[in-house]
Amino acid sequence: MKVLESFQAHTLPEHIRLLSEKQMDERVREIKGELGSRLFMPGHYYQKDEVIQFADDTGDSLQLAKTAAANKEAEYIVFCGVHFMAETADILSEEHQTVLLPDLRAGCSMADMADLKQVETAWEVLQKKLGDTMIPLTYVNSTAAIKAFCGEHEGATLTSSNARDMLTWAFAQKERILFLPDQHLGRNTAYEIGVPLEEMAVWDPVNNELEYEGDLENVRMILWKGHCSVHEKFTMANVDHVRQEHPDVNIIVHPECTFDVVQAADTAGSTNKIIHTIQNAPSGTTWAVGTEMNLVNRLANEETDKTVFSLNPNMCPCLTMNRIDLPHLLWSLESIVDGSPHHVIKVEEETKRQAYTALDRMLKR
Ligand code: 13P
Ligand code: SF4
Known about the structure:
The chain has a six-stranded mixed β-sheet with strand order 7-6-8-11-9-10, sandwiched between helices. Strands 13-12-14-15 form a four-stranded parallel β-sheet. The chain is built from 16 helices and 15 strands. It folds into three domains: 7-107 and 320-348, Rossmann fold, CATH 3.40.50; 111-224, NadA-like (Rossmann fold); 231-310, Rossmann fold. It is α/β, with parallel strands linked by helices. It binds 1,3-dihydroxyacetonephosphate and iron/sulfur cluster. 1,3-dihydroxyacetonephosphate (13P) binds next to loops.
């Protein structure tokens, strides 16, 4: 019975499956018109074109967190992004607002690489080794429970747009940072603000051990051994190949890419920075981009006076972001007009309160 219920929860109703794309487009438009300001639909840059065309606001993780915090009017927030983003919207929303994620399978493999139990174990072991010298920081690409852990332990959240500022803030509070869950963003940002690689250790949550050779006293940055499976696919071989094929190329990558790729690129930055850099670049320039494919393809289609392509020609989109498609979006909107919103994201109260503290420390800066 449970298996059947779970299957039904993810299976599109037949009447939606039978609609053409044009009919779905029209129906989405109709429902949006009907709901007016009762509905707000934020969309992350990585979303498919068929979905992002309907977004009321598009942005990177930081912008979307701010947008979610600012909108106090909409009764329904249909989040076109992944699970942690919808959770963030719920944490920042008011009691009268309901957050929906069109497909509950739209998770994030990186966020899943740190669970609360693992983090509590790491904290305990590390405190025994290093005393009360650490502050936890988590990338927003993490579960609400991890954000709550950071809130409870004087830490905060960050995004790829404000990572530098947040690390600088954290180092003013404590000697060491426990950085969750993306080792690459942590390493790239710490290096950028002057922390040498020799002062960075890696916490392996599977074996519960600290990977570091040297005197522990020198460690300032403890990187959780997590990564983004999309951004890790950009390699030095891609960089070398592109530079060989296009000697005039500009390589721009997201800081979720590995350290060597970020160092070898010409520029690194959040999705927002990538977009603005390419939009403001002179006509005729060539750009190899190291980030998710939906965004790269959109830039290639929009910036027609420039040559834009993926740094890895065999790249595929973020599969979980892609779970949000037009049929699921329509299904979600229909559930609202039918009076029984489904795939509602509701963070438990205590977690919400602590996670809010962590997010608020970031948003106030
Ligand atoms: P930003 O939107 O912060 O650049 O993050 C990219 C990302 O991977 C979101 O999942
Ligand atoms: Fe997660 Fe990476 Fe997909 Fe972003 S691109 S949602 S970090 S798996």
